[in-house]
Amino acid sequence: MKQQIIVSGIGGQGVLFLTRVVAQAGVLRGLPVLTAETHGMAQRGGTVLSTIKVGNFASPLIRTGQADVGLLLWEANLSVHRPLLKENGRLLINAAQDGEGERIDAAGLARDLGNAVLANLVLLGLAVHKQALFCLAEECEAAIRELAPARFVDQNLAAFRLGLDPCHSSHCQELAERE
Amino acid sequence: MNKKLLMGNEAIAQGLIEAGCQLATAYPGTPSTEVLQAVIDNRDEAVDPLHIEWSVNEKVAFEVALAGSYTGKRAATVMKQVGLNVAADPFMRTAYLGVKGGMLTIVADDPGPHSSQNEQDTRLFCLQGRVPILDPASPAEARQLVPLAFELSEKYELNMVLRPTTRICHSRQNVVPAQPETHGRTADFQRDPTRWAATPAFLPALHRKLNEKLAQIAREPAVQPRLIAGNGSKPRTALVASGIVYGHLVDLLTDLDLHGKVDLFQVVMPYPLNPEFIARLQADYDRLLILEETYPVIELQLGHPGAVGKQSGLVPREGELTPDVVHQALALFLGLEPPAESPAERRGQRPSLCPGCPHRAAFYSIKQTFPQGIFPSDIGCYTLGMNLGAVNTVHCMGACISQGAGFYQAYLQDGEVPPIVVTIGDSTFFHSGIPALINAVIQQARIIVVILDNATTAMTGGQPVPHMGVAAGGAATRAVAIEPLVKACGVDFVEVCDPYDQQRFMTLLRQADQHARSPEGGVAVLISRHGCIMEPAVRQGQTRWKVSIDERCVGCRKCVDAFECPALKMDDQNSVAVVDQDRCVGCGTCLPVCPVAAIVKEESR
């Protein structure tokens, strides 16, 4: 099993937490995992990128055109990080409007839950739902339980499940009604 | 024990605790900060007593740890690469005098750079300082090298350096924890003035001894270059790599089906290199590709006629050696098909001060009050004041006050002096601003110094600052207040103001300017005091307004461009500014910015 994943967003969107959850899901499965994260100045609202490599690797970084999966929390980063993806790589994007890749209004759904930052786990839910990632829903949920502070676990799981099954949310039904 | 997914910095901290380190000191700086933080978080695992401190700067951190080593205990100090410049003085002398208990200096380099003012190479620093240095290729290896470094340090009585780079520090990897060691040592300082207080008379002998030790440690089996032999298909050709670049190279060779086909050396200790290794490469290979970050330290020592690397120009001399760059170099060296041209690196969204950041309010007022001012600033979040046009220089820790004084002296010679308004963070002020302030006072530089006091070291994630009375780990300690310190430096004008109160802040800035220009005046200090908005207690402790922009907005963009809050953006379809409610923290500091009073606030629910 080998998979190379990028997580792209801007500082403050929870890119680091999303990265840790995916990586921990790999650890729980007993796989070797390497990640690289952006810390420092860029975390103040600038473009940040994490890479996750699951399986037998020596370096945490991903060459151009080698990522299997891209999780994008900030659509405008597409032009910056799209080149890292393989031609047939899977692209999952937090965006309200139509366009390239598989999209979900993760921020909108997260706002319904009361916190736009939860968009990160909504997007993860979608990626697992679409079977783009190496990991299963149960593994992600176990990782969330391990990593989230106790008082936020339920909220985080709710966000993840919303992404897993977006059309059961009130938000999606409203959209359907409007259409 | 179970494998844990640890960040490189956490893995190093694990190594420190497992190796029985008893004094751990640091000044925060990206990418090194999380090492000491992780020591703090896991201090209960240590068996022997463990003193941990966020020191006031890197020089102090180094000297505290050094004396710990003199007593026979294991000690470590942690800093970023430019922090070593601050600690250079004690660091250089320590090479000659040596240590007793294991002494490990952990210096995190930042090739790129990602979050630094340069991309200097600590390995080259060590070559000049004559200090052995280890260059780990992964977080797990970084942890393994910590106990080894302590052992070598004690065997040779030398300070050892461990140099992780950003991609080690901020990578995560599965790491198997080990049982922490106990050494049961008690402090036992053996007085030896010919060594610990060595005057020039003793130094040639100490220097000679150092050179002998370096020749011995270069031959230590545990830190010799490691060879993965090829299958002879590329005769008399080898690849030599160190640090994370070795990892990039292994993955690349695997992808290209070249792993195990060409001789590959990993250099674990780039200085001092074993002369026998150098001779062997001379004898056995006609061609070498040398991949290392950031300067050609191995390449310089090898002096191999067939070596290509940063000296020969095949490998880029600046910037990070990413896997794409490594691919390009390897393809050129081995005559492989070159990789598809990688697209020009685009930068994406630039960073900004956070919504609600008190620094933004201060910078806006400074720029409004002194549109023609000169604004030296410094290292920290507030560097981002450049987005508001209120930061003109950023150099190194504490430089802004002395630079402000230098601007003053240069302009004074010609008569007219523009307003010179220096901005410095609270942590930076304690780090190295105080000598510069004293100097500005005694040299009669008439400048305004704004101390941006947000009660924390914000950029690196909120380490404690001396005026808050909190030590590493949260224990209470004596607080050293800023105001009496500033007064004791000889400053007569000292005022404190919350920058959220824009009117008063601007009034005080004008008074500060009057003081600086009055006959008996001098340096004026304004302390801009408001807690960092990243701190949950600060957010919860202030009114959260519901801020919005009403129909009076004329779309002039002033709030978006001049105030530059990430929560304010243009609705391009309707040519008006709007508030992004996901990002707004409801501070209301943007209200005075609007020329038509279209930004309004109401009590939030």
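qc> Chain B has a mean pLDDT of 96.
qc> done
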